[in-house]
Amino acid sequence: MQARGSTPLMHGAAVGGASWASDGGAVAAGPIGVLAPLPTGRVLQLDLLSTWGDPHYVGLTGIELFDADGEPVSFSDPREQLRAEPASVNVLPGYGNDPRVVSNLVDGVLRTCDDLHLWLTPFTRGQRHVLWLDMGETRTLSMARLCNYNTP
Q: Are 90 and 108 in contact (CB under 8 A)?
């Protein structure tokens, strides 16, 4: 998790142990993994790096976040608390009133093909495609559930 204009907020701690050579013999004692604590922050930033094959668009049906106690994180004003770049297909010529906007991601409807509950935005390989979810206060997250864009 990363707050706007800051360094990442998640840090890990090395776990000690022996490393093993490909022939099965021990090499040297040292870290064998990283334990990452639950991420904590106010703004969750998601960088969308690719699509499921569509060369022109990327989208999601929904996002659910859960706090350290496993309780859902709610958004009291999604139009103010969620932001995307690019914002939606409404940035394209010929659009402007398309209902597939970023605030739909937290409306609680996850399994649907209804445009009123989806988010869709142009995708250009090599460009940034970012979502920011402002949780309103610093939170520790235990889980995030992302629902892929569905079409009939």
A: no
